[in-house]
Write a structure and sequence with these properties.
Elements: E1 2-7, H1 28-44, E2 48-52, E3 68-70, E4 75-77, H2 89-96, E5 102-104, E6 116-119, E7 122-127, H3 133-143, E8 149-154, H4 161-164, E9 165-169, E10 172-175, E11 189-192, E12 204-206, E13 209-213, H5 217-225, E14 229-233, H6 236-239, E15 250-253
Parallel strand pairs: 1-2, 4-5, 7-8, 10-11, 13-14
Antiparallel strand pairs: 1-15, 3-4, 6-7, 9-10, 12-13
The chain binds citrulline.
Citrulline binds near residues 17, 60, 65 and 242.
């Protein structure tokens, strides 16, 4: 059984952090409807979803992915790269504590969960505007004893590593090679996004299926041609906050 932790959209979402996007108005009601569609997709794929209440004063708190890394053996509570997001971690630590032994990333290290891509025992960490080498060292210290290898990956042109690459099958990554070099990843195959769909590399892999945004029809065709099945969701409203589909959940084995 898989559990997904999500959090309702904050009414202050229009005050979100932005790095690579120009600010444009976010329709809160529409963002909530799309978020409900996302939760429904998680349930359709068999997950037990725990929805946390909205945090009125934390604009980016819907993006729970950035607050933690949950593995089978333990979880790491992050230290997000944007100061405005630091208060998001305490409530997530409380929610995860009954499920996993917790480790905490301490100052001066910084890492957002959106920069962490796990492929088997390889953990790739994006060296982005949010995540640094101190965090990679700490993560290696915590996770090395469980057999994980933590590697830094240069990422450019986008917010997080998982804006540029996510796993879509046990042996396959969906990637935008303009933002991250395929040479960083050993022993895997690649499906490249359609060059006209820069943001199309973010998918949530759940078992043999994906949750995937409706916005990227050309890349969707590439995935389907590779025999990958998916549940599609509208996610364009939270995309204005620089969020994608992985950002909105923490998924782990019960
Ligand atoms: C931020 O800049 O932190 C938010 N506006 C977007 C975070 C998206 N999270 C993710 O990709 N994991």
């Amino acid at each position: 059984m898989l559990i997904a932790i999500t959090r309702e959209v904050s009414p202050s979402i229009n005050q979100c952090e932005l790095t690579f996007h120009e600010r444009e108005p976010i329709d809160y009601e529409r963002a909530c409807r799309q978020h409900q569609q996302y939760v429904a997709a998680l349930r359709q794929l068999g997950l037990q979803v725990q929805i946390l209440p909205a945090e009125r004063d934390l604009p980016d708190s819907v993006f729970v992915e950035d607050t933690a890394l949950v593995l089978d053996e333990c979880a790491i509570i992050t230290r997000p790269g944007a100061d405005s997001r630091t208060p998001e971690i305490d409530s997530i630590a409380k929610v995860l504590a009954p499920h996993r032994k917790l480790f905490h990333i301490q100052s001066p290290a910084r890492v957002d969960g959106g920069d962490i891509l796990c492929v088997g025992k390889n953990i790739y960490v994006g060296l982005s505007t949010r995540s640094d080498r101190h965090a990679i060292q700490r993560m290696q210290d915590y996770l090395g004893p469980y057999g994980y290898e933590v590697k830094g990956v240069t990422v450019t042109g986008c917010l997080h590593l998982k804006s540029a690459v996510t796993q879509v099958r046990e042996d396959t990554l969906l990637i935008n090679p303009a933002w991250v070099d395929e040479a960083n990843f050993d022993g895997v195959k690649f499906i490249e996004v359609d060059p006209s769909e820069a943001y199309a590399a973010n998918a949530v892999m759940i078992g043999q299926s994906l949750i995937y945004p409706t916005a990227f029809a050309k890349t969707q065709k590439r995935l389907e041609a590779a025999g990958i099945s998916m549940v599609t969701v509208d996610a364009d409203e939270l995309a204005k906050a620089e969020g994608a589909v992985t950002c909105c959940s923490l998924i782990f084995k019960a």
